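Progress narrative, Year 2. Work on Major facilitator superfamily (MFS) profile domain-containing protein from Tetradesmus obliquus advanced from sequence curation to structure prediction during this period.
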Amino acid sequence: MGDGKACCPAGSKLCCSVPSSVDIAASGLKCRFGSVDVPAMLCGDTVCCAPPQLADAEDLCYSVLDGNDALLFAYPNCEASTAAAGPQQDAGKCCAPAKSKGDMVSLQDGLQDTAAAASAAAGSTHGKTPDTPDFGRHENESRKEYLKREYSALKPFVIISLSYLLFTTTDGAVRMIVLLHAYHLGFTAWQTAVMFTLYEVAGVVTNLLAGLMGARWGIKSTLLTGLTLQLCGIGMLFGWQDAWAANGEVTKGIVFATAAQMLCGVAKDLTKLGGKTVTKLVTPDERESRLFKVVSFITGFKNSMKGVGYFIGAAALTFNYYFALGILVLLVLAAMPWAAVGLSNQLGRARKENIKLSVLFKQAYNVNVLSVARFFLFGSRDMWFEVPLPFFLRDAVHGFGWERVAVGAVLAGFIIMYGQVQSWTPQLVLQPLKQSPANKYVELLWNGLLCVAPAFLAVMFLCTPIFVERQLQAMAGVLLPGMLLYCVLFAVNSSVHSFLIVKYADGNKVAMNVGFYYMANAMGRLTGTLVSGALYTFGGSSVVYGLGWCFVASVGFAAASTAVTVLLRDDSGGLRCGSKLTLVQ
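Result:
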């Protein structure tokens, strides 16, 4: 076959030595760059490929496949070389021919961590350095070296995830405290929904700007800013006076609580950016199954901790309002030192361009479509869950008349179960159904099924006498199973969504992509919160009919999310339901 330099001329190709463990005696070799296949040349122990549009390529990492599309090996990292033009023979490194030292540009997008360039403390777009093409123990690597390398690579993930989880506990708790305290003081569902308006509006704006901040200044800055603002929001709530409601100064109470919630809303989305993007930065693109599991775990566990926060907030509020707020301050303070000391300022920064605000609105097609679907998906949930449900559970005339701890326990149980189902969706739901890693068709299936639960509850509220006549046992027998069904279906949808956004995100702009996506999430929550407060308060002769119409609106939003998902351009993989049933080839 000759040597690599003879048959792989410099100037137009990438040449990489083949791992000794790979049998490359195959015909029809090809190299896959993203979704583009090009023929490959085999020159002794070297494979050479001509990348499409080499001069403009941002990411020349590729996989080598045989004629049957079977993966032989992959090079998840590329590294520019300032050496003379010609093939690079070191296994695991792929180098483009250099024009001159001044012309050389890095072929590796994504994470740049100057403090850990050699150890991959923050990973790369694919989560590795050129010398560590994958997680897992390398040949001739001692266990101590392996554990040290793994720790270095996952350190940002661990720190950000722990800070994110502690913050999330306070986020759920402060929402529960404000909501139940407002009910206790006599505010209506509509007035309480207004209190959360700026919380969600802040999420819309913050998610856009957080993406820009993350790309320019790194995830560490956004995380610490978010934690600081959460302290400010909780601190402001210490000044909320009960006398405002008793003395007829309801507007003053609403404005004050709304302003405090605005700070908490900004804090939530700044902090969430780090928790969502770091999974992309430590997981290689070609390991989508692993990425799905990592994203599902951190997202699901986050929601479980938010459920714990719901219960902590309700339980602590029973003791004392100020005591409850004090616990939240301590939790936020516990999260800050790790982020301040253990993270690099370069984590998550975009390397290749000076990001401008206009770039935030120039998202990839699939990111745009998924963002619209996310708007309707979360609007469907908050159309009945955030404000109407706890008010109905507390209502002693038309609803259940439960105490605050019981209401907090029900809402916490919903969120915790939602989080756990989300965490285990890849292993317990999608893998047995042969639907992992997820794609467009998987989301279509589960999004359509989501419409069933709110449709069932709408019929039971509006068309049967169970809730109108306040048959408590029958009410519990209908509402709680209906909530459980919605919880499971919504968790699977949310898990698939969280995976798809990091899958579709550009590694070099992952912070902006995720920020834009969660802007749509915040808009959906805002719409659901406001519409649900209005429907519950003004939607019928009693709150029973109001809640029933909330469920009708929830069905409409779930159906709209399903319709939008059809537009995704992600047809690979088809759709199966088990090993014997194929719905889409």
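The longest helix spans residues 143-185. The beta strands are 14-17, 30-33, 36-43, 46-49, 62-65, 71-75, 575-576, 582-584.
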